[in-house]
Amino acid sequence: MAHIIEVEKLTRIYGDGVKTYALHDASFSIKEGEFVAIMGPSGSGKSTLMHILGLLDRATSGSYRFDGKDVSLLSDNELAALRNKKIGFVFQAFNLLPRTTVLKNVLLPLTYAHNRVRGSVRAQEILEKVGLSHRLHHLTNQISGGEKQRVAIARALVNDASVIFADEPTGNLDSKSGAQVMELLQTLHEEGHTIILVTHETVTAESADRIIRIMDGKIVSDEKVSNKRKIHAGDVIK
């Protein structure tokens, strides 16, 4: 299977005077259809790595090929187009538009892509897939945290993104809602999506195929999960 992500000696430095290495010499690859957890404590550099892999930030040095393309050669507009076409994001804080309906939140990526061919129909199909067809016209402040995260997942899927980045997706959820979200991510992986999960939780990380551990901006291990955990709705995951 082809590699969707290939990075070599990826480094991100902040500051002009006193330099801070948020990421230092990271090298690894991720195949299409893999489920990979990037794990580390707060401040380890895992979110910096996710932002670079998700084309939201650029590395200071090193090489990064996404879907065969050298991202350093792409303009900001080209990066945005590639991100919109290939990548979906699920964040801990949901990042939904407040006082806006569930349906309109999911439609947002289609608006940015100027893609109205399927539009509302596609959004409703995805919301049904994540179990929220009954919430189409509810405002985002009228639904639970677990439902908000499922809206975020629907938004990530609406453009047929092949790679889903999930940054601490269960961090703001109770155990029951968190298990439902993890079960959904596992299902998406089984359907062929590449899932990159950023987490500090061992339980959720062990649902992945591999765990890349990061500490102080450096990759300290990259290992396959020997006993992959299957999380079901109703499990206690914290």
Structure explained in plain terms:
- Helices cover 31% and strands 28% of the residues.
- By secondary structure, the protein is an alpha/beta fold.
- The protein has a domain at 33-44 and 83-224: P-loop containing nucleotide triphosphate hydrolases (Rossmann fold, 3-Layer(aba) Sandwich), CATH 3.40.50.300.
- β9 (210-215) and β10 (218-224) form a beta hairpin.
- The model has no long low-confidence stretch (mean pLDDT 91).
Provide a compact summary of the structure:
With 238 residues, this protein is α/β, with parallel strands linked by helices. The chain has seven helices and ten strands.
Feature tags:
single chain, 238 residues, alpha/beta, Rossmann fold, six-stranded mixed beta sheet, four-stranded antiparallel beta sheet, 10 strands, globular
